[in-house]
Amino acid sequence: MGLHGSETQKFEERFAQFLGVKYAFAAANGTAALHLACEVIGLTPGDEVLCPALTFVASANAILYTGAKPVFVDVAGIQDLNLSVDDAAAKVSGRTRDNMVVHYGGHPIDMDGIAALAQRRGLKIIEDCAHAPGAVYQSAQGPRLAGTLGDVGCLSFFPT
Q1: Separation CA 53–CA 67 (nearest Å)
Q2: CATH code at position 121
Q3: Where are the alpha helices (DSSP H) in 20-138?
């Protein structure tokens, strides 16, 4: 049996199958999942993390819990409230270690653009999918579920 009990273990296994990933782990809430993701990525004091300016406070708090600093990135525009890839690129510094992207309102962010930026600059990607469990992103490699495109995906079942 896993850490949480047999029912949770079954849920984790089935959710991993649904997402098409090897592992899924349950956390108490989305904030805890984001904090764990920041720890797994290896954020340390002094690191900077690109974070959307339009998000729930948990995104920035999870970064702050590690001693890292959130660097707020503007939205793409009035028709796209997700993080702007262009503004993110402009805010990368020598201390930037990670992109924390939020698929806002169930609409996946431009993950191809974020992935290209991350690859160019050696950054990790944490996906905050609290608004987007089951949302499909049309990637250059075909359709993929939000939460499976970055290094770590955090999903939530909060009613928003």
Answers
A1: 19
A2: 3.40.640.10
A3: 30-41, 57-65, 85-91, 111-121
